[in-house]
Design a protein that fits this description.
Blueprint (H helix, E strand, L loop, with lengths): L2 E2 L10 E3 L2 E3 L6 E5 L6 E6 L3 H19 L3 H17 L1 H12 L3 H18 L2 H4 L3 E7 L2 E9 L2 E5 L7 H12 L3 E5 L6 H12 L7 E3 L4 H9 L3 E7 L2 H13 L3 E5 L4 E5 L5 H13 L9 E7 L3 H12 L20 H17 L2 E4 L18 E4 L6 H4 L6 E7 L2 H9 L3 E2 L1 E5 L3 H10 L4 E4 L15 E2 L2 E2 L6 H8 E9 L1
Parallel strand pairs: 8-9, 8-11, 9-10, 11-12, 13-14, 13-19, 14-17, 16-17, 19-20
Antiparallel strand pairs: 1-3, 2-3, 4-5, 6-7, 7-23, 12-22, 15-16, 18-21
The structure holds nicotinamide-adenine-dinucleotide (NAD).
């Protein structure tokens, strides 16, 4: 293993262990490709277990000094990181568009959401305070102290490769823990820059480590006895598998999974504004969001105008390379992912619903190697169909009708996911009824993408989430600390 001070001059993505950029010895490498142009951006090593172990050991060594660093000093590192991220905001968004494919306005938004988590974690001296009560019995006082636990593993997906790691590691290190991050192997390039900035901000060696890889790296991390807890985001199948595995190892675990989100439109909604929000929800990030609207339920006479507006706007969206002006929608991340979305559409055509808009043949003349798939709309989708219940993770909408809010809620309860939903209405009463009965964790009222900000919890219900404490917000502080209770008599 050779080490260097920077990631930048190697085409093989480097691991970051104990404050140094380290070449992986991995024999298996996966290409990282610009999904619009087909240009190669680097190679991700599928690091072996020995490299994960080295990262965990570095994190374990760094823990005692870092946990005893005063919270204000830990916060100052994060303040400096926040300033550096602001300075590099556009540069990060640009490389993010290159490796992920979403358009520049979307990557600017993603980086902003990531920075907001660093900002929130800067409040750690207050957020981490405990509680005290004098005289719980005569002359006896009681206090709770929040203490960090040690090394945490963070495993993240491809669809928000800058923001999602920042849902976790800034809180983990702010609370005095140390971290090994295993980013998505599909688009790990931009987060390397974030890690360089964290080192520049003064994060000591070993506090944040990064190991690239896939299954072997993840299972080694989850099984390592020094790792006290796991934060995971990805598909539900992987979330469930890792939740069970980490729990069996006696670790804390929060595992955020996939989604199938229903958006419900009532006749009294402002239909034009609802449509803008719905189009952004369904087709933004080319449908690769866990908060993406997927099944659109028009209640009674809302249905036809909802459908017309959606088709009108969806068919005018301009696809292309997300760094160019005027582009509304980029490609999906990879050729296999494009093929999987096409397979869903093919299956959908055999299940009975009508295909009103077909994105399968989409091309962009200047970029023949891009992974293009255009906006696609089906009508007559039911929750027992593949199109109505499976996560497609592409720009595909299924339309359906309901006679009432109750019926709409019943439809979404027939699907096992529970990440997000939304209602469009001008009736406070209908919105309240919906919120009361939805049984889903992130709810929009006249909002297409109900994304909680950094100071609120982010995570779903049912098979969209395994665990209890969610990402961000106060949950993050609870997840990364143990509340220790001291009872004193003097
Ligand atoms: P994924 O499950 O394929 O991969 C996520 C991470 O798990 C990656 O780091 C990957 O290397 C690792 N991994 C994958 N399979 C594994 C296995 N068998 N064993 C061990 N590790 C494994 O997910 P993805 O395709 O990168 O991301 C898309 C998914 O993430 C979608 O389902 C989406 O809904 C979900 N997601 C959920 C949220 C949320 O907040 N609930 C947010 C973003 C994305």
């Amino acid at each position: 293993m050779s080490s260097t001070e920077s990631q930048s001059e190697s085409s093989v993505i480097r691991n970051f262990i104990d404050g140094a950029w380290v070449d992986s010895s991995a024999a298996d490498l996966l290409p990282v490709v610009n999904p619009a142009t087909g240009d190669g951006l680097g190679m991700t090593p599928l690091s072996p277990a020995s490299e994960v172990n080295a990262a965990v050991e570095a994190a374990a060594r760094a823990f005692p000094a870092w946990r005893s660093t005063p919270a204000v000093d830990r916060a100052r590192v994060l303040f400096r990181l926040k300033a550096l991220l602001d300075q590099h905001h556009e540069e990060l968004a640009r490389t993010l568009t290159q490796e992920h494919g979403k358009v520049f306005a979307e990557t600017m938004g993603e980086v902003r959401r990531g920075i907001e988590n660093v900002e929130h974690a800067c409040g750690i001296p207050t957020l981490m305070m405990g509680e005290t009560l004098e005289d719980i019995a005569p002359g006896i006082d009681c206090e709770t102290i929040r203490q960090p636990l040690g090394v945490f593993g963070v495993i993240t997906p491809y669809n928000f490769p800058v923001m999602i790691p920042l849902w976790f590691w800034p809180y983990a290190v702010a609370t005095g823990n140390t971290v090994v991050l295993k980013p998505s192997e599909q688009d790990p390039v931009t987060h390397q820059k974030v890690v360089e900035l964290a080192a520049e901000a003064g994060l000591p060696p070993g506090v944040l480590n990064v190991v690239h890889g896939a299954h072997e790296a993840v299972t080694t991390l989850v099984e390592h006895p020094e790792v006290k807890g796991i934060s995971f985001v990805g598909s539900s199948a992987t979330a469930r598998f890792l939740y069970g595995k980490a729990a069996k190892e006696g670790k804390r675990v929060q595992a955020l999974g996939g989604a199938k989100n229903f958006l419900v439109v009532l006749p009294d909604a402002d239909l034009d504004r609802a449509n803008e929000a719905i189009v952004d929800s369904v087709f933004g990030s080319t449908g690769q969001r866990c908060l993406a609207g997927s099944v659109l339920v028009g209640v009674r006479e809302a249905y036809e105008p909802m459908k017309e507006r959606l088709l009108d706007r969806a068919s005018s969206l301009r696809m292309g390379y997300g760094l160019e002006e005027g582009v509304d929608m980029g490609p999906v991340v990879s050729r296999p992912h494009r093929d999987s979305v096409v397979d869903f559409i093919n299956q959908g055509t055999q299940e009975g619903p009508d295909l009103l808009l077909d994105g399968r043949g989409a091309t962009v003349a200047e970029y023949p190697d891009g992974h293009w798939i255009g906006p696609t709309v089906f009508e007559g989708v039911a929750p027992d169909m593949v199109l109505g219940k499976e996560e497609i993770f592409g720009p595909v909408a299924g339309l359906t009708k309901a006679g009432s809010v109750e019926e709409a809620v019943d439809l979404m309860h027939r699907v096992h996911y529970g990440n997000s939903t939304g209602i469009f209405t001008s009736s406070g009463r209908a919105a309240r009824e919906f919120r009361y009965k939805a049984g889903i964790s992130m709810i929009g009222v006249n909002i297409g993408v109900a994304a909680p900000m950094a100071f609120f919890p982010f995570g779903g219900a049912r098979s969209s989430f395994y665990g209890d404490l969610k990402a961000q917000g106060r949950d993050a502080i609870d997840f990364y600390t143990d509340k220790r209770v001291v009872i004193s008599r003097w």
